[in-house]
From TrEMBL:
This is Ionotropic receptor 75a-like isoform X2. Gene3D superfamilies: 1.10.287.70. Residues 21-201, 691-830 form the Ionotropic receptor 75a N-terminal domain. It holds the Pfam family IR75A_N. It comes from the Eukaryota.
Length: 1203
């Protein structure tokens, strides 16, 4: 009895020792340094395991599953990898609790490696809880066998989306310490097929039309500006779905709280109602409580948009800026010298009426271009006056020109890109209702917080949000700063703004340009797939392409079409200030004179009564005038005070041969989308083959030769490579059916690798169907020869075009040396049929001669460049070229070339064609070869609108108001001057005319005698000089910047111009008319109303009609440039304007869907491109755009309408 107990005890201890070795070897393979175990062994066994793990440098904790452990506390890890082993052989109910808790706390990610020890595979799997399993799950179930353990990989892509538990043999372990792993590929590759699982996405959708399905709206390019970030995310997830074979179900959120910071979408992510949000959001740490970040996706820069307005700061430096300080100093010295000279002249000429300060007044009048009422009699005096006049005239012109240059070089007064600065303005604000706005205002930075508290929070809720169209309209009026996404706003701006408004458009960013992130739910079954998909698309350039596809084009400011900018009151303020100071000074002097008079004149004696009385009468008149001057000055001071107050507000040998051949090619065998073994009742050789292929990680499915099955479903693949081997040694007639059907379904391209076991080559060739063979076919036949096999490569470049079957010895194989490769490029003049559309070919010239003629490529440049590239391909691969041409076509979408590619009568089209999605059903894109665009071209002519505002436009309205106000004051002052100087026949009307003459630089026709009067006249003269210079400078700058009335690049504007339209007869026009863009639909309705005979004409005729103005001609620009260079002069070239009908894009060459020459053509074109031949041919073929020499423009004459 004791012997039996000892034997049993030995077996148990030996079993536990094997378990410990297995656990230690497994986790050493996983390179895990922290292990938690739930063991059914005794204390001694657990202690031995701990000691073994510690000697290996592994920290371990072993718990008894009967103790109801705290799973979250023991297994929680945020940064370190954790290995977990669970022994199911003790049959404890707490085991289910362990798996349930670990699922609840999401412990099946990359940081966790699970090893489950069970006695029966089915029983063990039934205990597992796969709720939180995903593609990243690392769970291995180990079942003991006679030689150790068999391991099975267990995972589920996503249970709550209908995923099934997958169990695949993972490896074996034996007590000799041999751990064999079958699945060595990364988990992403071996688990990358999600078998059509449905992923749910949702986001806030605001602009979807009620009559359009959501799935159609998310793909609609015509509304790209509306919810562009949603459409971008949907496109990215759809591409990822194609990559990993899952489907996408899109939903929309109708309501969201505008006052919520994170929004309804993050609540849905937190509740796992959706998997991925279709709204990209700002990447911040607090949102990780609600969702998991996938990665940066969509660039975004939301901003406030407004029109820049002139600054309200007085530009005091503009007054002195025309001259440097040195010039001003020299100017002052020469003025003093001039005054002395004039004084000497007056003294020599004995002009008593100009005594005192007369020389100063006369000199300032001359310098101010007011005229000199001085006629010296002697020669020296006259020469001096002439020199002073010439000096003042030159300085006056230099000063005027300097003001003009200052005005031309001055930039727009655009507000600083800061919302804090915007908050301090008095501009009205509003925003588009978008979910991320509240977060940016409340959680971003101090500037947004300052803006929110000062401007946003006090704003009533009813005034905060405006529809996008209304908001942009008010921005155009200059009364609103509107917050929106530029991708949404730009189409409206391009449609509603003119050139001047586009140039004045200012963007103030709520936060600087950043990248919004894509978020997924915390369950994260799709998290790693989404991340990998995003990285793949970013590294391949697909992300950038999608961003460009869904983003809107920013309207460009046409610097050569700037409108006149009026001078504001803040620029002319120095002149007004100078005049005001002069008035004040005159008033003070006048008051001083009166005080002096009243205090001292009364001491005169009574005997001079008549003289005193006459002086008293004169003093009373002066007193009244002075009081009026003081009153006017006070009114001016009060006006200035009010003015300053207003200024403060995004089989073995066979088996070995098959094994080595297919392993070398690294082909993953798959049937459909699932890896499986059809039957275990096959002969032992079949089982041996399956085992050997599985050992290298290749999944295999084998059908009997007489089996009936769905051929297309069994062999069809879209994304994965498929290896197919066929054994012809069983003499079964089904082999012919296999080859016939595979030809019907065209299963001889890059996705298929065929390997055929045949008794001899002849037998194989009788069964073979090479109809669908091409140059890329991978079809290898193995024939036995004594102790080795010979492998033959078989292909046919193109049977339909007379190609013959090529059989080439490819390799040999035996057990000793393995597989030895021995090794298609010459097509032996195989016929290739190419075709294109031609219109201008003369009847007396052969087609090949015409296409090879590069001396006259002005009209057929597209087909000629395409034919040149196809000719280079024929030289590389030794084809025989047969060319065809279509000279007529009707108004339908596909055109004759696409019809020929569809019916297979043409192999390659040498006519470059637009890349359109619906064409991919009929043909294959060979390669994009060149840029393409079409446009309406016309001459920009001067406007025929009478421009009443051109007279007043040089100055702003507030400047005109101030000028008028000061003109009245000056008139009154001048009237006082005339009265005080006792000038006869000088009433208020004469004073008005004299003041107007002084301001208009016509001269002041009197010289006052009194000092105060002369200062007032001096101020009026200088004031008139400044206003005259500002006005003339504004007119000159307006004439230099005069707009050519160029229209914005918009078809809306072209229709509104009411110009006559014409077009070249080209195939591209029919394609453009199928576009459903709203702008295209609008223009199409207008275009179709024009009679066909009036709008279709030759290029030469169209260019000639353009020369007369009022006519816009549609053509491929390179066609028209040839004639423009011949007919247009330099002025016409500068007036040439282009409005695109087909926006700049690229065109490509196409091949038919059978694709015999597709890969050959692609390889050849890539060689041509990499060697620079393509670039050279493009430069040689295309006409150069005429160049406008801006530095040699002719003088633009004034027209009647502008005067």
């Amino acid at each position: 009895m004791s012997i039996r107990v000892l034997i049993l005890l030995y077996i148990v201890l030996h079993s536990y020792a094997e378990d410990n070795d297995f656990i230690s070897d497994y986790f050493a393979f996983k390179n895990v340094k922290n292990i938690v175990g739930f063991s059914c062994g005794d204390v001694t066994s657990n202690f031995n395991l701990l000691r073994k793990l510690n000697h290996a440098g592994v920290f371990a904790i072993i718990k008894d599953p009967f103790s109801n452990p705290d799973v979250r506390l023991i297994l929680n890890s945020d940064h370190w990898a954790v290995g977990v082993f669970v022994d199911l052989r003790c049959h404890n109910e707490n085991l289910e609790y362990i798996f349930s808790e670990s699922s609840e706390h999401r412990m099946y990610g990359y940081l966790y490696s699970w090893l489950i020890l069970g006695s029966n595979l089915n029983q063990s799997i039934s205990i597992l809880n796969d709720t939180a399993y995903s593609m990243a799950t690392d769970v291995v179930v180990a079942i003991p066998n006679q030689n150790g353990y068999e391991m099975y990989d267990v995972f589920n892509h996503c249970k709550y989306r209908g995923g099934l538990l997958n169990v695949i043999k993972y490896g074996t372990w034996n007590p000799n310490g041999n751990l064999t792993i079958y699945l060595m590929e990364p988990k992403l590759i071996r688990r990358g097929d999600l078998n059509g699982l449905r992923l749910k996405i949702a986001g806030v959708i605001q602009y979807r039309p009620k009559n359009m399905r959501l799935i159609d709206y998310m793909k609609d390019i015509n509304t790209r500006s509306l919810e562009s970030m949603h459409k971008f995310v949907y496109s990215m997830i759809s591409h990822t779905g194609d990559l990993f074979n899952f489907s996408v179900h899109a939903g929309e959120i109708y309501y969201w709280d505008r006052n919520s910071i994170h929004g309804r979408m993050f609540e849905l992510l937190k509740d796992n109602y959706i998997d991925i949000a279709s709204n990209p959001r700002v990447m911040v740490s607090e949102r990780l409580e609600f969702a998991s970040l996938i990665g940066a996706a969509w660039p975004v820069r939301p901003c406030f948009m407004l029109l820049s307005t002139p600054t309200n700061k007085i530009k005091s430096d503009l007054f002195l800026k025309p001259f440097t300080a040195g010039i001003w100093d020299t100017y002052a010295v020469f003025m003093i010298i001039s005054m002395i000279i004039v004084g000497l002249i007056l003294k020599h000429e004995k002009v008593k009426s100009e005594e005192g300060f007369g020389a100063i007044v006369l000199t300032i009048g001359i310098m101010s271009q007011q005229g000199a009422y001085l006629f010296p009699k002697n020669l020296a005096g006259r020469i001096a006056v002439v020199q002073i006049l010439l000096f003042s005239w030159m300085m006056y012109n230099y000063y005027s020109c300097s003001i003009v240059s200052a005005r031309l070089s001055e930039p727009f007064d655009k507000i600083e890109d800061s919302v804090a600065v915007l908050a301090d303005t008095h501009m009205r604000i509003a925003a588009e209702a978008v979910p991320y706005l509240n977060y940016l205002l409340k959680k971003w930075n101090w500037e947004s917080d300052y803006f929110r508290k000062k401007r946003w929070d006090p704003l009533p809720l009813s005034k905060r949000y405006l529809p996008i169209e209304e908001g942009i309209r008010q921005v155009g009026q200059g009364i609103l700063a509107y917050h929106t996404d530029p991708n949404t706003a730009y189409p409206y701006i391009e449609k509603m703004f003119d050139s001047s408004q586009i140039c004045q458009l200012t963007e103030i960013h709520l936060f600087k340009e950043s990248v919004m992130g894509m978020y997924s739910s915390h369950n994260a079954q799709f998290l790693e797939i989404a991340r990998v998909g995003l990285i793949k698309m970013q590294s391949s350039g697909l992300r950038n392409r999608q961003i460009k596809y869904w983003s809107s084009k920013k309207p460009q400011c046409q610097q050569d079409a700037l409108s006149t900018r009026s001078i504001t009151i803040y620029e002319t303020a120095p002149a007004f200030i100078l005049l005001t100071l002069g008035i004040l000074m005159s008033s003070v002097i006048c008051l001083t004179e009166n005080i002096y008079y009243h205090r001292f004149t009364q001491k005169f004696t009574q005997q001079n009564e008549n003289f005193r009385l006459s002086k008293q009468s004169s003093s009373q008149t002066d007193n009244a005038n002075e009081l009026q001057l003081i009153t006017i000055s006070l009114i001016r001071l009060q006006s200035c005070t009010k003015l300053s107050e207003c200024h403060m507000q995004n089989r073995k040998q066979t088996i070995d041969l098959v094994h080595e051949e297919e392993s070398m090619k690294s082909v993953v065998y798959r049937s459909g989308c699932t890896r499986y073994l059809l039957s275990l009742d096959f002969p032992a050789g079949i089982l041996l083959m399956i085992k050997m292929l599985n050992d290298v990680g290749i999944s295999v499915s084998i059908k009997g030769p007489s089996a009936e099955f769905n051929f297309l479903r069994f062999l069809n693949v879209n994304y994965w490579k498929l290896g197919v081997f066929v054994d012809l040694r069983c003499q079964d007639q089904n082999a012919t059916v296999i080859f016939d059907k595979s030809s019907d379904y065209r299963m001889y391209d890059y996705a298929y690798n065929w390997f055929v076991l045949a008794p001899n080559i002849s037998y194989c060739l009788r069964k073979l169907n090479d109809t669908a063979f091409s140059v890329i076919t991978d079809f290898v036949v193995s024939v036995p020869n004594y102790d080795y096999y010979e492998l033959y490569d078989i292909y046919n470049p193109n049977k339909e075009r007379g190609g013959t079957l090529n059989i080439t010895r490819y390799a040999i194989w035996n057990e000793d040396i393995g597989l030895k490769i021995l090794r298609r490029w010459n097509f032996h003049k195989l016929k290739v049929i190419v075709a294109g559309a031609l219109e201008q070919k003369p009847e007396n010239i052969s087609l090949l001669e015409y296409l090879e003629d590069h001396d006259n490529v002005n009209l057929e440049d597209w087909p000629k460049i395409g034919f040149t590239l196809v000719q280079l391909l024929t030289n590389i691969f030794n084809f025989s070229l047969h060319a065809k041409a279509f000279t007529t076509w009707t108004d339908y979408t596909n055109g004759p070339l696409m019809d020929s590619l569809i019916d297979g009568s043409v192999d390659i089209g040498y006519q470059p064609s637009l890349i359109i999605h619906r064409r991919l059903d009929f043909a294959k894109v060979l390669m994009e070869i060149m840029p393409a665009r079409t446009c309406f071209m016309f001459l920009t002519l001067p406007s025929t609108t009478i421009q009443f505002s051109s007279i007043l436009r040089p100055l702003a309205w507030n400047s005109w108001y101030m000028i008028f106000f000061f003109f009245i004051i000056c008139s009154l002052v001048f009237s006082f001057i005339t009265k005080s100087d006792r000038i006869e026949n000088k009433d208020y009307g004469n004073s008005l005319l004299t003041t107007l003459g002084a301001i208009c630089q016509q001269g002041a026709q009197n010289t006052p005698f009194k000092f105060a009067s002369r200062i007032a006249l001096f101020q009026i003269g200088v004031y008139g000089l400044l206003i005259y210079n500002y006005y003339s400078a504004a007119i000159v700058s307006a004439r230099l910047n005069i707009p050519l009335n160029k229209l914005n690049d918009s078809l809306y504007k072209l229709v509104a111009s009411k110009m006559k339209l014409g077009s070249e007869d080209t195939v591209v026009t029919n394609i453009i008319l199928q576009d459903h863009n709203p702008e295209m639909i609008y223009f199409k309705n207008y275009w179709l109303r024009i009679p066909q005979q009036k709008k279709i004409m030759s290029v030469e005729k169209g260019v000639i009609k353009m020369m007369h103005g009022g006519f816009a001609y549609h053509s491929i620009p390179e066609h028209a440039y040839y004639y423009i260079n011949n007919y247009f002069d330099q002025k016409m070239i500068c007036q040439l304007t282009e409005i695109h009908w087909l926006r700049p894009t690229t065109v490509a060459l196409y091949t038919n869907r059978k694709g015999h020459y597709h890969e050959v053509g692609k390889i050849g074109l890539m060689k041509i491109f990499s060697t620079g031949l393509l670039k050279r041919e493009l430069k040689r073929t295309f006409a150069q755009k005429p160049y406008c020499q801006n530095d040699g423009n002719s003088v633009e004459s004034k027209i009647l309408y502008s005067e």
